[in-house]
Amino acid sequence: MRFFVLTKKGVKKIGIGTIEINKKFINFNEASRYAKRLRSFISYTCKKNNYQASVMTIVSNLKKEVSRSKYIHNGKRGRPKRELIINEMAANNWYKGDYHTDWHIHILIVSKPSFTLRNLIKDYVDKNWCEIPSIYEKEKFDISKLGQKKVYKKTCNIKMADYFIDQSAEIRFVNCNYSSGKDFDYSLKDYYREYMRSYSDKTKLINKHRLKPMNEEKYSRELEKIESQFKIIEDYFYSITKEQEEKEKKEYMEKVRLSKISKNYNKMQNISIRDRFEETYY
Fold it and tell me: pTM of this prediction?
């Protein structure tokens, strides 16, 4: 008797990934306009295909790890103003004061389906933004970039959001659910708000502790309270990529194992050749 396992075809799977757009824009306004077009396309595509997505678009002209995004409290009512604070050590020591780069766009996507939506976005940019210069055109020729795609996509986990937020001159969101399924537990906008709030509150706590030191137990309790909601949201997004990361880890460990076997085999081969040489001539 034969048994057959029935599997569902076309099941949509939630995932997290980025679209890296290899385009340079003349100024902030141009980059912002194209980011707006991108958000409109994503919303239209999700509606047309009954997809679900939470998307973050970032406009920036800063090099990596040179800035930190934080709230500036001016005592006025309403939402505090967000500013980018330059890391002077990174700016002066790493980049020698030259920490600006071309205006560019990053996009982080949590979607269901995962790969299909990213492929559609990639194809849209490649087809419709061909008049925008490539960043690579300004660099010296590198043979390793021969045949490199204009736009590429890759999977990642939620920590990529931290990197994008901390360099963003503009940050905008698209949250839509045209599927028949329930909404995501949290959106990237939720993550962003808690990321900014928790950092701001931690800064206040550190300054308060500096002026009037509190005992270790109280400080830890206050810190845990500040971080609790952000940790819940962060863990939710981590759970989305957990399976993929475990798979990649296993694949990496298998490569390491095979590499060690290969090295040991080559080592034994060299010893064997050396022994035969010595037997012959000595």
Answer: 0.80
- How far CA 170 is from CA of 12, 165, 215, in Å, comes to 31, 9, 40
Distance set, CA 87 to CA 60, 68, 90, 110, 147 (Å): 16, 7, 5, 29, 36
Residues 190, 193, 195, 201, Cα dihedral to 10°: -140
Pick from 61, 281, 18: nearest CA to 167: 61
**Nearest partner of 139 among 128, 130, 126, 148, judged by Cα:** 148
Q: Are 26 and 53 in contact (CB under 8 A)?
A: no
SS3 assignment, position 105 = strand
Angle at 84 (CA atoms; ends 82, 90), nearest 5 degrees: 160
Residues 6+ apart with CB under 8 A from 166: 65, 67, 68, 69, 84
DSSP secondary structure code for residue 2 in this structure: -
117 neighbors 13 (Cβ within 8 angstroms)? no
> To which H or E segment does residue 57 belong?
strand 52-62
What's the rounded Cα separation, in Å, for the pair 10 and 117?
A: 14
Residues in the chain: 282
User: Under a CB-based contact definition with an 8 Å cutoff, are residues 104 and 23 in contact?
Assistant: yes
Q: Is 57:39 a contact under the CB 8 Å cutoff?
A: yes
Higher-confidence residue: 252 or 60?
60
The b-or-e profile of 155-173 (16+ CB within 10 A means b, else e) is: bbbbebbebbbbbbbebbb
For the chain, percent of residues with pLDDT exceeding 90: 52
Q: At what angle do helices 188-211 and 216-281 cross, to 10 degrees?
A: 110
Query: Is 90 exceeded by the pLDDT of residue 237?
Result: yes
Distance CA 3, CA 9 (A): 19
